[in-house]
Structures are given as structure tokens and as C-alpha cells.
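Our preliminary data section would be incomplete without showing what the modeling component actually yields. Below, a chain of 636 amino acids is followed by its predicted structure, encoded as C-alpha cells that our downstream tools consume directly.
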Amino acid sequence: MELNYDVIVIGAGHAGCEAAHAAAQIGARTLLITMDMNKIAQMSCNPAVGGIAKGQIVREIDALGGAMGHVTDATSIQFRMLNRSKGPAMWSPRAQCDRAKFIWAWREVLENTPNLHIWQDQVRRLLTKDKVAIGVETYLGMTFKAKSIVLTAGTFLNGLMHIGRVQLPGGRCAEPPSLELSESIAQHGLRVARMKTGTPVRIDARSVDFSLMTEQPGDTEGRRFSYYEEEASPALQARAQRESCSLPQLPCWITYTNEAVHERLRAGLPDSPLYNGQIQSIGPRYCPSIETKLVTFPDKDQHQLFLEPEGTNTQEYYLNGFSSSLPINVQIEALRLIPAFRNLEIYRPGYAIEYDFFDPTQLHHSLESRIISGLYLAGQVNGTTGYEEAAGQGLVAGINAARHCTNQEPLVLKRDEAYIGVLIDDLVCKGVDEPYRMFTSRAEYRILLRQDNADARLTRTGFDMGLASSGRLHGFEKKEAAVQRIIDFADGYSVKMQDVNALLEQLGTAPLTRGCKLMELLGRPQLTIDAISPALPRLREFLDKIQERRSEIVEEAEIQIKYSGYIQREVEQAEKMHRLENIRIRGRFDYSTLQSISTEGRQKLISHDPETLAQASRIPGVSPSDINVLLVLLGR
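Predicted structure:
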């Protein structure tokens, strides 16, 4: 049997859900194919969304019109704003979620999205004609044709799990791998390689002595990712109303390993797949297994562990910081040497998993394959790790797959527009030699890419793409106008010494020696708008006129006031880089003949074939002097 669609999305993980939702919302007739409809958007590792740099990505997805922020808010059981002690460029929201409710919330979104159809099956083969993707063939014997295909198969491509010396085929615990699909794509010339990731043991809370652990509560206010709750789908709004009073905010818990634990783990290293030659592929450096921590940091006598709830109606807990592929008995015996776990019982052990991925330097910035037209790749198949990184790619791939169907220009986000833009540019220009995870340090324009201003950066783009509604755009414009009114007020309001000096001394900052504008006064790190308002009746009266989203608007205005100099500097730096982004070089040089460029530079330019001079400058091995040579040859 053969059926036709505009867009087919393979896999319903975090990338696939965003891709299918976006493509269908734009208007493409979309089919989402998944092995198991009860595992849609499964959180394969810890049941949390956001974190350092990742929280910014979720806010960007929300600003563009994606659903991850809404789903997270509807199922959150703990919310925290990380890095509050640092500058606003480093603030990152993170939410612990109810794993099971997260799945069903996403399923409610997808099942109620117009133009979106779901098929439970497994894709066996990609169908192509003259290097153009035209459809897929499934194990149930179905043939689906489409103008665009989005591959988001995660760790399932030839997935192989490791627990000690035991090896089991699978894409996730108790779930089969995807066989043949990887080969059907690689036969067209796409480079494929292997990566490894892992997950920790799952613990029965009834066996834990919580009195021997440190409680880590969440924040008491500001608990949401989405800028506009009213823009959630009707199904999610109903869920939020239904469960807003029934989802308690649960704490996480902190404990530590000890030397006795380390001794037992070291004794098991000969049976570790990471050290007995069983696993050859590379795992994430920044999220190492517990055995890797012992080998890499032999002098550390303890490692911090976080015990995180999996949901409100389960005893299952996730042990963050104890990823392992050691034998089951070693994992259990070692953990029982921690006082809080002396009577430990587990649901399942930690394990490692190896899987196929495709070299992302074979992609355009639209995430379309350079080799197979109409094929888009997103998520771990591009060598990334993390739900948020996958979802961000999925959103872009879904948008561009839908736009491809109507011959529209693709959406390409710049590095100063979004962390998603940084992520995709890094993948396409630099490639990966280990699972890629987003950090704030990867972005050169961190002060521009804050979590608080993702709506200012991307709402209009989401509206132009057909994802963000006119209501959302209007709401953002109202907020933007309110922020600007506060900035204008601060710029024009004169503060007198006698009005504020007593309060300034209480707040631990020097008194004024002369009058000044409120804008200048708020530049002091010790002061906030709310802290100074008791001494300034006119300011209080002005702020009281803000009826909706007051705290969010005041915080945004305050950040712009305090960091205006830094923001302006990064804007100027970004504008300089834009000049290089506008210089297109693809097809203009035969790099093999340019002897004035370094040998490595020639090799990398031939291999990557960058679209613009700015992209060339970000390729590892292409030096500034190589870029200068190209500028000279261009007559610039």
C-alpha cells in the first residue's frame, strides 16, 4: 500500500516531535512514524529539561512557536533558575518533569495538531530517485511517499547496549534497534560513524534513607519556560488546568560517593566495556561515566550525586552522576557502600549504548543533506546529545522540510540570533569528534543570547515562518513597548540625593554626592528597580501601571539598563561578522590551486566547501591568514 504526504518524520523523540509539529503547523501534510506511540518524546536519560545553555534553547524553541516549553510547564515537578549568582548571560532555567506525564502531554499536542498523522511502525529503508529523497519503506510493508523526509532516529540506528560483558541489540532498554535504515542511507555516500552514550541506574525510593542526604528544593516563583501560556494548545491548556493543583513541586537530593565505593568500582574495571576493548566509539567528555571519573580523576576521594524524582506517582528515582556500564552486581555493591543507599534496591542498572550517526559537515545550514536532496537530519543522528539540542534541530528541520515542499527559502539562524544557530553552525562548519553538547562558552555573543530575551530575538521570525500566532506577536509587542517605557522613564527621571541616600546605605552602596538620572543609578550592581522603588514614589506609581507580566517586564528592562554597554559592544562585533556572512564564496575558488593558503586550510576548505567567508573562518584548521588570502583574491 502506498500513501502520499508532504513531509515524513522518522522517529518521535524530542527532535521528531518538534519537527512534525512545526511542519504540520506551517501547513504541510505530515506523517510521524514511531516504533511505539506510548514512548513519544521519551526522556531516555534524566527526566529534566533545560540547564546551562540548554534552558536558553528551550526558550528559543518556545519563541519560534515550538511546543517543548509548553509541555515542560504542564508537567514540571521542580523549576530552578541556575546561575543566578552570575550575570544574566549565564542564567539558565531548568525543570524536573514527570516522565510519564511528559510523554502523554506531547502525545496530546501531536494528536491534536492539524495536518499531522501518526503511524506506529519501523522504517526499513529510505527511498530515493536520482539522489532525491522520495519516501520510505516500513517493516509492515507500507510505502509512504513525500517531498521531504526528516530523519530523527536518535540512538536507534544499529543501537547496541552494554552492561558489563553483556551486549544487547537495542535503541533503548527493552526497545529494539533500527536495522537496515542506516545502511540504506550510507549507500548514497553519506559518511557514517559510531558514538556512545550512557545512562545511570534507576533506584526504588523505598530503599533510600533520605535523612542521610541533602535536600535540594526548587524555586518558589517564576516556574515556567513558555513566554505565553495562553498560546499552548487547547489540549495542553486543559491539562494545565486539570493538574495545576495536583502536581506537587518535589525536591531533588544530594549525596556523595566515598573511597569504599571507588575501591569496589575499580575492582570491576576489567569487566567495564569502556576499558576492556568492548566499546571503541567515543562518549561525551562533559558527562562521563562513574568509571571514567575514577580513571580521569584518581585523586578525588568523592563525587557528587543527585537523586532526582521520575514523577509524582512513582517510587522510581534517577541517580544523576552515576552513569555506568559496569556489571550489574558491581553497580549495586558499590552503591550500597553509600550510607543513604545501604539497603538499595533498583529497577534497572545503568548501561552504555553505541549507535550510528552521520557526519554533520555533510549538511547545509538548513539541516538538509548536501548529498540527498529533500533529506533532513536532526538530533543524535547529527552527533549531538541532549533533548534540547535535538528539539532545536528538529524544529529547524521541520520548518525547512515544510518550506522545501513549496520551494521557499530555508530558515537559517545566525550565531548572534540564537543558541540554535550556534549549534547548527558548529555542527556544519566544525563537525564532531564526540557527542556535541551546548555550553554558554560555545557562543561568542552570550550577552545577546540570554534566556530572558529569546522572545525579542525570535518571535517575529516564528511569526514569519507561520508558527508563532498573531496573538503571540501582539503579546510580545506589548511587552517590548512596556520594557522601552521603563527604560525611557529611567533615562529621563532625575534622582535627588536626599531621596535615596539613606536607602543606598542600607543596601550597601555608596551614597550620592550629586543628583543623577535613575538610569545611571541602576548601573550599580547592588541595586534593582524593585529595591530602589520604596524611596521613589514616582517610580512606584509608574510601575504600578504595569498590570500584566510585571516581574518579567521589569527584569528585562533592568538587564538592558545595567548591561547596555556590553550589549552594544556585542551588537557591533556581530555586525562586523555579518559583513563576512554576506561574502559568498561557494563555487568561486578552486581551493586545490591556491598555494598561498596553508595545506591544512586547503584540505579543510575542499572538504567543507563553505557557503560564506564567515563559515570558512569557523572551520578548524582554516587560519586567519587563510581568510585574509581569500579576501585579497576577492579584491577586498
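The chain has a mean pLDDT of 94. Residues 207 and 344 are 5 Å apart (CA to CA). Preliminary results of this kind motivate Aim 1 of the renewal.
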